[in-house]
Q: What sequence folds into this?
């Protein structure tokens, strides 16, 4: 066993026991170190959600995002493929482990009076599993709308789509490093400092990050699930095109062809949103109602 495997502190104890002539205790200590290292390796090898970060299992880390996301042959929703629900082991559909919801936000004319913002949410290949929503600029009140704020809006708005589904943990896949690092790394530090940065100033968009944090905590306290965040390249984020088109920007078609096989918006129509009272976000006092909502022509959401 190398010193890097067990840690220098543990090996120092073993060396001290050997020098003191306590060979038996040294062997026991080394065996304990080996067992602990094996436990750590097993933990690191599995897919997991740790401090809101999703880490895919070691065996799948060399694969591209489109190779790690699979489509259920029954409901056509997305889930993450990993060792823990391989073909040999699983008896339930793959989505009973980690379901995936891709989110994205976009804004044309950042900070300007002509700004137009929208979000996109995708959790499957069917049209009813792909959602676009315009963000009301007046919902930001005294704050200017930016693409970064639209990205945080998208993550929060997406939570309502699995607010009543508890059979699996959910992964929010985002191509925004701003959202990913903000919710997994920066927000815990800000909260420890009274929602302020080290300089004492309020962080940008702290209001939206606190709302996102509140929404996640509410869901996890009510449902037997854990919510994690996964950073993916934009070319694999199907929600990006929905958000960009909703904001009046040109869509990026650089993703693999199969990803756009059913991602068509030729028959989409716009109507005013009409969520029922008492929905998940309304209960939190968080309701970014807007000028319009995009849905499929079939009327399903």
A:
């Amino acid at each position: 066993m190398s010193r890097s495997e067990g840690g220098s502190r543990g090996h120092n104890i073993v060396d001290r026991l050997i020098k003191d002539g306590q060979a038996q205790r040294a062997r026991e200590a080394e065996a304990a170190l080996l067992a602990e290292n094996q436990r750590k390796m097993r933990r690191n090898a599995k897919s997991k959600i740790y401090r809101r970060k999703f880490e895919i299992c070691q065996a799948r880390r060399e694969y591209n995002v489109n190779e790690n996301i699979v489509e259920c042959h029954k409901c056509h929703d997305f889930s993450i493929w990993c060792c823990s629900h391989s073909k040999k082991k699983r008896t339930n559909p793959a989505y009973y482990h980690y379901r995936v919801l891709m989110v994205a936000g976009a804004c044309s004319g950042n900070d300007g009076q002509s700004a137009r913002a929208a979000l996109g949410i995708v959790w499957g290949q069917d049209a009813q599993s792909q959602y676009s929503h315009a963000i009301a600029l007046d919902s930001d009140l005294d704050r200017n709308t930016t693409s970064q704020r639209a990205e945080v809006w998208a993550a929060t708005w997406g939570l309502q789509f699995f607010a009543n589904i508890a059979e699996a943990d959910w992964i929010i896949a985002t191509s925004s490093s701003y959202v990913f690092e903000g919710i997994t790394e920066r927000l815990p530090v800000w909260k420890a400092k009274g929602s302020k940065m080290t300089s004492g100033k309020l962080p940008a968009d702290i209001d939206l990050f606190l709302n996102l944090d509140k929404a996640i905590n509410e869901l996890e306290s009510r449902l037997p699930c854990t919510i994690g965040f996964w950073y993916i390249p934009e070319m694999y984020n199907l929600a990006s095109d929905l958000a960009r088109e909703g904001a009046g920007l040109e869509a990026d078609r650089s993703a693999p062809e199969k990803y756009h096989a059913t991602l068509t918006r030729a028959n989409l129509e716009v109507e005013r949103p009409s969520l029922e009272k008492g929905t998940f976000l309304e209960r939190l006092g968080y309701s970014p109602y807007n000028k319009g909502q995009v849905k499929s022509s079939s009327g399903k959401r």
